[in-house]
Design goal:
Elements lengths: L1 E5 L3 H14 L4 E5 L14 E5 L7 H10 L5 E6 L15 E4 L4 H29 L6 E6 L2 E6 L3 E7 L2 E6 L4 E5 L2 H8 L3 E5 L2 E4 L3 E4 L3 E4 L2 E4 L5 H16 L2
Parallel strand pairs: 1-2, 1-3, 3-4, 4-5
Antiparallel strand pairs: 6-7, 8-9, 8-12, 9-10, 11-12, 13-14, 14-15
Helix pairs in contact: 1-3, 3-4
Length: about 240
């Protein structure tokens, strides 16, 4: 893993670097006093600690340019004024820390950022595996303390309770694991449709549907308000794709 620190204060750069090494000595750390390298199209880093107030290109504009280059880097803003972070969500910032900060709070942020970066790597790997061929359309989840390989086409639908996702399989088995439905939605792709905040369905298992419910193998799944037209489009698009295979 590679972590970048971009701050015009040497003391802050050194403090963050020291904390990163205390949290995980195996990561690669690089530091810059300005944002020129961060906005370069060739820039690659898993996490960037980005000072908002810097001469030249400030942190917020650097983050916008980073996102325009399609980089999925986890961004942690560093700022002396909390008011500056109100636009952080516009650039997909993960977290922010306000100067002056103590080492223990900083370590908590570093740990969370590393977890987020690892999660992004996992999603990217699943998406890569999925696109590499039909025989690779599987995912691996940690269920009951064991890594379980799941064939995507065998998933009828997924539902979520708190952070626990339950995969309902065509074999009638149920596989439960901790995760985010939004991450699963990205991994499974366009053959699945999220009809409701709590439900993600395999379009190939739909028996019937209307504006209120979808019937998947005799299970009635609610359709969220405003999702019906999207469901129709997704269902028709799915069958059009299948007919042209």
């Amino acid at each position: 893993m590679k972590i970048t620190i971009c701050d015009d204060e040497k003391r802050i750069r050194e403090m963050i670097a020291d904390c990163i090494k205390e949290v995980n000595a195996n990561v690669e750390v690089e530091s810059f006093s300005d944002a020129k390298s961060v906005v370069s199209p060739s820039f690659e880093s898993d996490i960037v600690f980005l000072d908002i107030q810097m001469p030249g290109i400030d942190g917020m504009n650097a983050a916008r340019l980073l996102r325009s280059n399609a980089k999925k880097t986890v961004i942690v803003f560093v700022t002396a004024l909390e008011d500056y972070v109100f636009n952080a969500f516009d650039v997909g910032a993960f977290q922010y820390i306000v100067k002056p900060f103590d080492k223990e709070k900083l370590k908590v942020v570093i740990n969370k950022a590393i977890e987020q970066a690892n999660e992004q790597k996992y999603i990217d790997k699943m998406l890569s595996d999925k696109s590499s061929g039909e025989e690779s359309r599987t995912i691996t989840v940690k269920s009951g303390g064991a890594n379980t390989r799941v064939i995507i086409s065998d998933i009828e639908y997924a539902e979520i309770f708190d952070r626990r996702i339950v995969l309902h399989m065509s074999s009638k088995d149920m596989i439960e694991y901790y995760g985010k439905m939004s991450d699963l939605e990205k991994i499974l792709g366009k053959d699945f449709f999220r009809v409701h905040r709590a439900y993600l369905i395999n379009l190939s298992f739909i028996k019937s549907y209307d504006s209120k419910t979808v019937n998947v193998d005799s299970e009635e799944i609610p359709v969220a308000r405003g999702k019906y037209q999207e469901l129709i489009k997704a269902y028709l698009s799915f069958h059009t794709r299948k007919e042209h295979l």
